[in-house]
C-alpha cells in the first residue's frame, strides 16, 4: 500500500516522456512525406498518457491532502487547482495572441493574419470553446478542457468512489462509461481517466492488483474495439508503469535526472512548444529542402521550446505553485505531485 506522503517519481518520468513526445510530434508533423515526420508520428499519443496520469494523480492528491474528504472540501481543492494551473494557462493565451500579432507584422510573413474575436478569447477562460462556434487558439488547449471537467467530476464523486468498500461504485461508474463509449455516446478518452482512478484505488490498498488489471484490460479492449487500439495500448502501458512503479523505476534510473527535469517543466512545455517551437519550424522550413535539413530544424525548434518552457516554468509556473500554497495551504501538506 502506498503511504500518504510517498512521492511517486514514475509520474515525473512519464510526464516528461509524454510532454516530449507531444512536442516532437508538433515539431515534425509539417514535414510531410519525410522520415522526419515519421519519427514523431506517434507523439500525439502522449496526450493519452497524460489522461491516465491525471486519472491517478487527482484522486491520489485528494487522498493525500484530505484524509477525511467531503464535499465541503471541494471549493478548497478546486481553488488550489485553479490557482495552480490557470495562471500559466492564461499567460500562454496572452503569449499566443501577442506572438500571432507580431508574426503578422514581421517582414516576409507568409501566413494569414489571425483575427481573434473577444468572444473566442473569453470562451477559453472557462474552457467553453467546444460549446461555441470558435476554435481553440492553439491545438493543445482542447485537452485542458477534458482535464478541467475531470477535476470537477472527481471532486464531486470522490467520497463515493474512494474507500475499500466502494469498489462496486467504481465498477458501476466504469461500466456506465464503458457502455456509453460502446454505444458511441461518449469519447474513448474517458476510459483513460477510468484506468487512472483504478490504479489509484489499487496503490492505496483499496483493491487487489488482479481486480485492477481486469479493469485496465477491459477498458483497453473496449477502446481497441472502438477503433482506438493505439490509444488503448498507450493508456494500458502508462497505467501499468504507475501501478508497478516501484519495480519499473529501476529500469529508468540512468535517465532519471533528465526525465525528472522534463517532468517538472512538462506543463510549461505543453503550453509553449507550439507558439515558440512552431515558429522556429515555420522560419526554418524556408531555408532547407531535404530530410537532413528538416531534422536540424526540428531539433533546433525543440531546443528553443525546452528553453522557453524552463523560463516559463521559473517565471510563471513556480510562482503559481507558491501562490496556491500561500493562499490555500494544503491540509495536511500533500505529496508534491506537480502539474497534471
What does this structure look like?
With about 350 residues, the protein is mainly alpha-helical. The protein is built from 14 helices and no strands. Helix 4 runs antiparallel to helix 14. About 40% of the residues are buried. The C terminus is likely disordered.
The number of helical elements comes to 14
Number of strands: 0
Q: What is the C-alpha radius of gyration, as a whole number of Å?
A: 20 Å
Classify the beta-strand content into a percent band. Answer: under 5%
Q: Could you give the distance between the termini?
A: 23 Å
Précis, in short:
The protein has 340 residues and is mostly helical.
List the helices and strands and how they pair.
Blueprint: H1 9-28, H2 35-39, H3 46-65, H4 74-105, H5 118-125, H6 141-161, H7 167-182, H8 190-203, H9 209-225, H10 229-243, H11 245-248, H12 256-264, H13 266-284, H14 291-327
Helix pairs in contact: 1-3, 1-12, 1-13, 1-14, 3-6, 3-8, 3-10, 4-6, 4-13, 4-14, 7-8, 7-9, 8-9, 8-10, 9-10, 13-14
Amino acid at each position: 500500500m502506498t503511504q500518504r506522503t510517498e512521492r511517486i517519481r514514475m509520474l515525473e518520468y512519464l510526464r516528461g516522456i509524454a510532454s516530449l513526445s507531444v512536442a516532437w510530434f508538433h515539431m515534425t508533423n509539417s514535414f510531410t512525406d519525410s522520415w522526419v515526420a515519421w519519427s514523431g508520428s506517434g507523439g500525439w499519443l502522449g496526450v493519452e498518457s497524460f489522461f491516465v496520469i491525471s486519472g491517478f494523480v487527482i484522486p491520489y492528491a485528494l487522498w493525500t491532502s484530505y484524509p477525511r474528504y467531503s464535499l465541503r472540501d471541494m471549493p478548497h481543492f478546486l481553488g488550489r487547482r485553479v490557482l495552480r494551473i490557470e495562471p500559466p494557462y492564461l499567460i500562454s493565451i496572452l503569449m499566443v495572441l501577442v506572438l500571432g500579432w507580431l508574426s503578422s507584422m514581421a517582414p516576409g510573413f507568409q501566413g494569414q493574419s489571425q483575427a481573434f474575436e473577444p468572444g473566442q478569447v473569453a470562451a477559453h477562460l472557462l474552457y467553453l470553446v467546444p460549446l461555441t462556434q470558435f476554435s481553440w487558439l492553439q491545438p493543445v488547449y482542447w485537452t485542458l478542457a477534458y482535464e478541467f471537467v475531470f477535476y470537477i467530476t472527481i471532486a464531486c464523486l470522490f467520497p463515493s468512489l474512494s474507500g475499500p468498500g466502494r469498489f462496486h461504485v467504481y465498477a458501476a461508474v466504469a461500466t456506465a462509461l464503458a457502455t456509453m463509449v460502446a454505444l458511441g455516446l461518449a469519447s474513448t478518452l474517458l476510459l483513460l481517466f477510468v484506468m487512472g482512478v483504478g490504479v489509484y484505488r489499487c496503490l492505496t490498498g483499496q483493491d487487489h492488483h488482479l481486480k485492477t488489471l481486469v479493469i485496465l484490460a477491459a477498458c483497453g479492449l473496449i477502446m481497441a474495439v472502438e477503433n482506438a487500439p493505439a490509444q488503448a495500448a498507450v493508456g494500458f502501458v502508462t497505467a501499468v508503469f504507475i501501478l508497478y512503479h516501484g519495480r519499473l523505476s529501476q529500469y529508468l534510473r540512468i535517465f532519471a535526472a533528465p526525465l525528472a527535469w522534463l517532468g517538472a517543466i512538462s506543463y510549461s512545455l505543453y503550453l509553449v512548444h507550439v507558439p515558440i517551437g512552431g515558429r522556429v519550424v515555420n522560419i526554418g522550413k524556408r531555408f532547407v529542402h531535404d530530410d537532413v535539413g528538416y531534422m536540424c530544424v526540428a531539433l533546433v525548434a525543440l531546443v528553443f521550446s525546452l528553453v522557453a518552457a524552463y523560463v516559463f516554468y521559473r517565471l510563471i509556473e513556480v510562482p503559481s505553485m507558491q501562490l496556491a500554497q500561500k493562499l490555500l495551504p494544503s491540509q495536511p501538506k500533500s505529496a508534491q505531485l506537480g502539474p497534471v
